[in-house]
Structure formats: structure tokens, C-alpha cells
Amino acid sequence: MPSLIVECPHCGAEKIGFNLMYQMPSTITPKNMSKRFRVYMSCSNCEEAVIGTFDKPVNVGSPQEPLTCPIDPRILGWILTSTYPTPTPKPCPDCTPENLKKIYLQAANAHRRGDPDASGAMSRKVVDVSTQQLLGEKSKDYRDIRGRIDALAADNKLTPDLKDWAHQVRLGGNDAAHDLDPFTPEEADELLNFAELYLTYVYTLPGRLKERRERAEKDKEKAGAKPT
Fold it and tell me: Other C-beta atoms within 10 Å of 57: how many?
């Protein structure tokens, strides 16, 4: 049975083996292609199905069909044109700084592929890095992330609800014994939700407000400009 490695849109595994199980020839063949097959493929991790469209260029010889390939059909000249469903990465909240965006997307992707420990650690890092940047030199005065969140809330830079939620999720990281324990799926899910809401409040809402004010200012300038 041939197999290939692609990203799974169901469990989120970025590089996972798919077994090619069943194929159906297409009556419509694109230009410069001699054959097209739609192939039912099964993820070796979650066993969910993906339909892959395989095209065979006119200059490719045998094998005649994807399922008769002894290895990944792409190695033998077939082209995997598309898959359905298509993997859709979780978007990051708008206006998030690039360094935090990269960390958040690592947390989201790890969560999607079923790796709660990596996801939880990266979600916590999002808040850790952000609070240090927001407080600057003052961040050294606080022993953990939650302390920095309390300081930001006292300065009205975070809502009381966010501060309270921060005390409910596993954010601290100074308890070495507890910190060595892996994150459970429930903890990872709650941390990712917290990180998303945190970024939305700290960066997205102010960023959108700034954009709106800038548009309003430009509209005023246009309205007040004299015609030439």
C-alpha cells in the first residue's frame, strides 16, 4: 500500500503518514496532464480521511495509477495537486507584534496536532514575553507572570477579569516541581484561550481603535481640503 507524508487538516499533525486506500479516475484531465485520480487517504494518527487529487504529467511513464505505486506517488512523477479538506491554520489576533505572533501560532499549531505540553508552554511564553515588554525594567520587580499581570491590571492596562483569569490558569512557572509536570489537554486549551483573549485586549482592540482614528483624521483632512 503506497503512502505519503502531508499535513492532516483534522488532527493538525504537520508531517504525518497517509495511507492511500481507494482511488477513482476523473473524466476531466487538466491540460498537460495525461491522467487524474482522486484518492481516499487515511491519516495514520487520527485515521480521518482526506481526498487527494493526483495528476500525472504527459511525460511521466509507469506506474499507471497512484495505488500501483510501491512508494509515495510523487517520487514517481505524480503531482498532488490538492487535498480536501485543506489544512487551515488558526489565525493570530490582529495587530499582534510579529515576535508574539510567531510564539502564539506555535502554541495554536501544537494544540491542533494534539501536543498539549508544547502548546501550554508556548501559550505561557506569549504572556510572559508580552508582560516583560510592557513593563520594561519594572518587570524585574515581579517574581512571575501573574505578578506582572497584577501590576498591569493595577495600572489599568488589563481588565480585572483578565487578572482574575490569570490566577486560575497555570501561568506562574516558579514552582519547579509543578512546572516539570506536563500540561494536560484541558490546561493547554485554557491557556491558549487565555493567550488569545490577552492578545486581543492588549494589542487588537487598541490597534483597531488607532486605525479608526487615523481613518477619521484622513477623512477630515479630505473634507477640509480646498478643490484645485
Answer: 13
